[in-house]
Amino acid sequence: MSLPRYAEYKDSGVEWLGKVPSHWGVSQSRRMFRVRSEPALPDDQMLTASQKYGVLLQSEFVLREGRRVVEVIQGIESLKHVEPDDFIISMRSFQGGIEWCRLRGSTSFHYVMLTSVKWVWPPFFAHLLKSATYIQALRRTTDLIRDGQELRFSNFAQVPLPAVPIEEQKEIATFLDRETGKIDALIAEQEKLLTLLAKKRQATISQAVTRGLNHNAPMKDSGVPWLGEVPAHWKVLALRRLIDRFEQGWSPECEATPADPGEWGVLKAGCVNGGEFDAKENKTLPSSLVPREELELKSGDVLMSRASGSPKLIGSVACVMNPPSHLMLSDKIFRIRLSADVDPRFFAVAMGSAPLRQQIEQAIGGAEGLANNLPQASIKEFWMSLPPVKEQLAIVDFLVRELAKLNGLAGASERAVALLKERRSALIAAAVTGKIDIRQSV
To answer: Which of 106, 109, 192, 434 fits a disulfide with 40 by CB distance 3.0 to 4.6 angstroms?
Structure first.
């Protein structure tokens, strides 16, 4: 979409705004918004401000996320009242902007509520306060964010805002709602495709590692509910029969950034996410610490994530081929040594199949206190169907070819999503700062 610029511009005097249409003004944000400091009312429902969903009832947030949030236990006097069309500054506003609230309720005292004073049409500012250029300006107001400190009204007040005629704000908001809606629909289509490709990927793996490549092979009941029928000549074994030993790494205090070439790094749990090894998922070992060379990663190693804040990541397995040097295991990673009749690449891909994932999820979901940890004892009790080594290698070769096709499709879809999000962000930033004139497009 090609849109014209305004006929005349002037220098706003504000770095993040740059030049603005000549009939726009610029105002201190404290003249346009004030803090709402009213205590919560007895019948207020609790709200949650999230970057993912915006502002919604806390009960709905819990349902969507499938997890509890930290409950406020101090009582109603510690809560703040919120009105529709307020804006909420949260701890994460420096990442994704300030949230527009369309509900009446209450929130934690950690949030800052903004209510409009003048020159504000809330739907317009819903776009502006979450635009990329505004967020960058908000970040520049403090160096304390990385220390976990909260953004306050004093940060908000440091960023001047455009004073746009109300009718024009309405036109811009209407235009952006319509155009971003179209882009969001395209993004949703691509994300749906990505979901279907992920399901196809796992179905392809599961079919190959539990049924084999010969569709006419005689079958037998495995005796294991998760596996069902398997080829009659395959073995069905508990993993304790396949694993010779586990090795666990070391987790010293490390620098947050990945190690540079030649430096020692300690692997993070995410290095095997999705069954693919990612060498960049590491933290730099400080030069003051002596590396433990016996924990260095070697080609052919089978790695498993044993602990993570994300249950979906726990139990992820990858076989590492030709890794960079100077990478060490962490205590969140198992290195698994297998018996001679198990190809490490077959084992790694089989661990990502649906039957094994079911067993992993039951283990971490059904044991008290193990929600973020997968112990060796549980892993040893998982069951797997095992073909002869020659067949294992044929299955691996087949999956390499098939998964490459699916990964190619997924990569194209991911690039499309990234481009659409960039286009969306650029369109919003251009409209709310007056770089394009949308008045004839509404």
So the answer is: 106
**DSSP assignment letter at 330:** -
Phi, psi of 176 (to 5 degrees): -70, -40
**Token digits for 271?**
């290095």
- Distance (Å, whole) CA 422 – CA 401: 32
Contact present, 88 and 101 (Cβ < 8 Å): yes
- By mean pLDDT, which of 38-52, 114-128, 154-168, 228-242 is the weakest? 38-52
Decide which of 220 and 367 is more confident.
220
Q: Which two tokens stand for residue 148?
A: 């976990």
Structure confidence by residue, pLDDT tens digits, 272-312: 987 889 999 999 999 899 999 999 999 999 999 987 767 77
Greatest C-alpha distance within the chain: 81
Q: How long, in residues, is the chain?
A: 442
At 344-387, the pLDDT tens digits run 999 999 999 999 999 988 888 754 444 578 889 999 999 999 99
The pTM (predicted TM-score) of the whole model is: 0.82
Q: Cα separations (Å) of 347 from 198, 303, 341, 350, 387?
A: 20, 11, 11, 5, 11
- Residue 69's pLDDT is 55
b/e 131-155 (16+ beta carbons within 10 angstroms → b): bebbbebbbebbeebeeeebbebeb
CB-CB neighbours of 208 under 10 Å: 22
List all residues 6 or more positions away from 147 whose beta carbon is below 8 Å from its beta carbon.
none
Give the pLDDT confidence score for residue 169 in this predicted structure.
98
DSSP letter at 159 equals S
- Could you tell me if 278 and 267 are in contact, meaning their C-beta atoms sit under 8 angstroms apart? no
Q: Tell me the C-alpha to C-alpha distance, in Å, between residue 173 and each of 150, 163, 254, 370.
A: 29, 14, 46, 48
CA distance 116 to 121: 9
User: 298-303 — which CB contacts under 8 Å span 24+ positions?
Assistant: 298/323, 299/323, 300/344, 301/335, 301/344, 302/335, 302/336, 302/337, 302/338, 302/344, 302/347, 302/348, 303/267, 303/271, 303/272, 303/277, 303/329, 303/333, 303/334, 303/335, 303/336
Range in 31-40, 207-216, 266-275 the model is least confident about = 266-275
